[in-house]
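A protein record pairs a chain with a discrete description of its three-dimensional fold. The following entry can be read in just this way.
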Amino acid sequence: MTIKYSFSAMLMFLIPVYLFANGNVTGKVTDAKTHESVPGATITIPQLRITTITDGQGQFTIKSLPNKGKYLVQVQSLGYKPMVKTVDFSVPGSLDFALESSNIETHEVIITGTPITSNNKYNSTSAAVVSREDLLAPSSNLIDGLSRSVPGVSQITTGPGISKPIIRGLGYNRVVTLMDGVKQEGQQWGDEHGVEIDQNQADRVEVLRGAASLMYGSDAIGGVINVLEPLAPSSGTVKGEVLSSYSTNNGLSNSSVMLTGNENGFVWRGRGSYQNAYSFNTPAGYYINSGYNNTSFSGMLGLNKGWGYSHLNFSYFKDNIGFYDSDPGDPLYTNDGKSRTLDFPRQDIRQYKIALNNNFLIGTGSLKLDLGYQKNQRRELDDPIPSLFFDLNTYSLDAKYYLPESNGWQPIFGVAASDAHSVNKGTEFLIPAYDQTTAGAFGYIKKTWGTNTFNFGLRYDYVNNNGKQLFVDGEQKFTGFKNNFSNVSGAAGYTHVFNDILSFKANAGTAFRAPNPAELGSNGVHEGTSRYEVGNPDLKPERSYQADAALEFGKNVITGSIGIYENYIHNYIYASTTKGDEITITNDAGALQTFDVYRYGQVNANLYGVEGNLNIHPTSYLHLDNTFSYTHAQNESFDRPLPLIPAGVIHNTLRFEPKVKGLKDFYVSAGLDNYFKQSRIDATFETPTNSYTLINASIGTTLKLGAQPLKLYVTGSNLTNKKYYDALSRLRPGRLSQEDPTYGVYNPGRNITFGVYLPFNIK
């Protein structure tokens, strides 16, 4: 029985959980020193996907809650230290929280993307959380925003319109992106295949750095980006938001409207967003046909009751992205790049997704069940008829049963499976049509004693690939392949909280990644990358041996962390070319075209590095935030650097928040982004990049529009209009052409963004 036919049977089995009764919880939030009430404090219960805000007297009520079980409750308010507390709902009484005033950031934050939802301070995984406020900072897409906020995260870019996440030097199918609890599937093996997610949907994002294969299977060998939408508001509430921004560099307009509500446990949400940009401007001119536009709609219908929750999420994302098919000697820039009409070639990408997310109380434990279906259609157009057209349909299941905690022991067991089918509907062919089936099972246990926690887990995975044979005009295009891979992965972690100032965490484990169908069977021109790709059906799985450790500290005016990591990968897979390896073919117009040939192969690789942050807050109105990261990657098989590795970077931001009469949350900030020279390259097909520094600044405040807050901001990036090439830009010299290694496109120049954000309450 396939996954898609088992969904209804499983749901019928789970119907009895709806018999559990509902409960209500009331409480109050006060100042720990003055004992005065704290109005506007946010109380969230992530495991139940619900949130509320205290009223003018600091009081709150949350309805339709379980009448038993232990859950993490997080309380936050501006100017106070966040509080995370475990609450047993079977114990009667109100929930009262006393917050300590503080002008520093802390590591007291809940992480949901790890096997057991926990306070980050007691969580061994190297995790970072990007809040809604930080996500509102101007960026061209979600991954672009994360790369500026989280140490160890960077991006492979094809101009501002396409960003692929890189975590600690690893990307492509080595990083899992989650949305609505379901892995995002969008042919992510491609260099210029971005993440098809509306950046405005995210209420917060958790970034798990390091191998997360224990929970997420084969493709999480590098890390996980967990995108979380807004939690359901308290019962009787209807609220929403409107946001809009405009950026001068490429005319990017970004607008989004959202409404959400809760009526006695019936919860709902709807959002619509639209982005449009013309070609991006470099210090040398507008890069030809680099504009893009996207439209997205998403929604949720669900129930939050005493038996848990069940939410049906659905989304549609359509992205159009222009490309420029050029050869050395062709012009790259124009002075007239403000047309919003995209020329050919271009991409037309459509992502449809349905996810059913459930958390049921069963007996003394709970079952978390996520079911998903998504269709990804990727068209690469030379004219109105698609040349390449991939149509990928994926069904997925992820189930985890949480046993009750006993004497500090927290065990869980889980199973996961997926069934994917990709077909070719274009006139040209790059990868064969394929079927892919995966299945996995894991066990995990966490032990807490005093200020220590220890966790350990094992997982078994099975991956089956079936690439289809294809003949074109009587000639064999794809030979076809059938293979399967299996593996046992293991991981262990440890944390120790020395005191309120210092804590330590460490992890070690092994993981694997099965070759994807593109690596196994490619044979054709990839229009978006202007190269000819050749797969290898004899590839073996990658095997990773990873360890990391970090110290986190914070007291009074200083907080921060520093971590080190190493990841040795046996049979690391990547595509490379050598000078002179070319192929000449006849295109659809009958003309001859020559392409560099990139072939997939394997080496042993060792990646290690350091990342951290240092935040200094001498007063409540002055903040100096600094992050840094560096990855050293070596091709051990050929004793040379590994390709496509980010340069070391230091981000410095000075933020001034004076009290200004008539204004709320007023701030002025200035920043420096310092990128190191990247000379550790694979010289057979890469060129080095120089160091550079970008100067940024922003100003913003909040006004009262009636009873609603209206946030206004202006942000400038690369204010000196610096000419530079980023080490991970696909348009930089050496990436566009092997014939002329000086032929490349500068990164975007000066950009000023004007933005507004209006959250509002209807009732």
About this structure: Helices lie at 3-14, 132-135, 142-147, 213-216, 517-521. The CA atoms of residues 84 and 316 lie 35 Å apart. The radius of gyration is 26 Å.
